[in-house]
Amino acid sequence: MPNVIKGYVRAIDAMNRLIGRFAMYLIFVLVGVLLWSSISKTFFNPSLWTLETAQFVMVAYYILGGPYSIQMGSNVRMDLFYGSWSLKTKAWVDAFTVLFLMFYLGVLFYGAVSSTAYSLGYFGLEPFQFFGDLLKTLVTDGLDAASTKLGYLERSSTAWRPFMWPIKTILCFGVFLMLLQCLAELFRDLGRLRGDDF
Length: 198
Description:
- This protein starts with a helix and ends with a helix.
- 21% of the residues are buried.
- The protein is globular and about 60 Å long.
- The chain has one domain (3-194).
- It is mainly alpha-helical and 198 residues long.
- Helices cover 74% and strands 0% of the residues.
- α3 runs parallel beside α7 (165-194).
- Keywords: Cell inner membrane, Cell membrane, Membrane, Transmembrane, Transmembrane helix, Transport.
């Protein structure tokens, strides 16, 4: 394999390992939020923010830990025959099936970007163009001009009514990282088929 591909695989692995190791500590944040929810419901007035905050933390935990899970091979896999196959057969099957995962993640990423654009007040059909224009305006004209491009910001329909764009942005970021990790896994499997191990 070319050095540029090996460098890509090493860089993506290192980045997703770092983010995944950070994300695994979000479980303690989740426990803290749920503990406070139980205490406040028992002894004080119930907090409005706890249920939705717990949901948002769980989404961040799951979606940011996903690429690290793929890297470690700890994602759920149905192992009827796979465990008894040779390394080359596993590499062939993994290289083929990761393409389906990448297609699914690509569709999911497009939906996440569209949903994030919607949460920022964009109701058109070109979310990537919206974000391109927003970034261009931010770089050239500054934050005030970019904020005028935003429409009505979506809020949750609950009593707490938090803005939805932060968690949707995390969703986009996590799915994009999963796509990058899947591409690294594809390169790793192709390298195994060629006899390169990295």
